[in-house]
Amino acid sequence: MAVKVLLQCGTTPPAADLQRFIEEAAMLQRSQHPCILHLYGAVLDCQPYMLVSEVRKASLAVIAAVRHVHSGALMQA
Hints:
Number of domains: 1
Oligomer: single chain
Number of strands: 3
CATH class: Alpha Beta
Radius of gyration: 16 Å
CATH superfamily: Phosphorylase Kinase, domain 1
Largest sheet: 3 strands, antiparallel
Structural class: alpha+beta
Shape: elongated
């Protein structure tokens, strides 16, 4: 499990940062794909604002390869 915290308690995030954080939570909630993290839950109504998701144990090389394939670059070769 991984926890992403927008800001620690006692600090107020800029409205734009909070809006992006909320949009990220909404996007993860709608996404159902094996290459996308699964969102377990979010705390968006009080501080600290948090997203709780699964942890991916893939290396950066694997992630880059998946992105490369999905971008269509390998399909054209």
